[in-house]
Amino acid sequence: MIAKPLTYDEHKAAEAAFRGYPPNPDWTGSAQEIYARLCAAIAKRRATSLDPASEREFEEVGR
Question: Whole-angstrom Cα distance, residue 3 to residue 54?
């Protein structure tokens, strides 16, 4: 799959998703889809990292 550069709207949507800003209803459909998918992925990642069952056990390193 060949990656294509983001349009201005898509770039702004991605930036808004990472910064936690609300979506802009004037964005194109593809920009709104990018925003929705990124927000969902970010929320899933936060939920997983907060789940104590998913924490990895780290062994202590002795000197």
Answer: 32
Distance CA(6)–CA(4), nearest Å, equals: 6
* Secondary structure of residue 14 in the 3-state scheme: helix
At residue 51, the pLDDT reads: 58
* Cα gap 46→51, rounded to integer Å: 9
What number of CA atoms fall less than 13 Å from residue 31's CA on the CB side?
A: 17
Taking the whole predicted model, whether its pTM rises above 0.90 is answered as: no
Domain ranges of the chain: 8-46
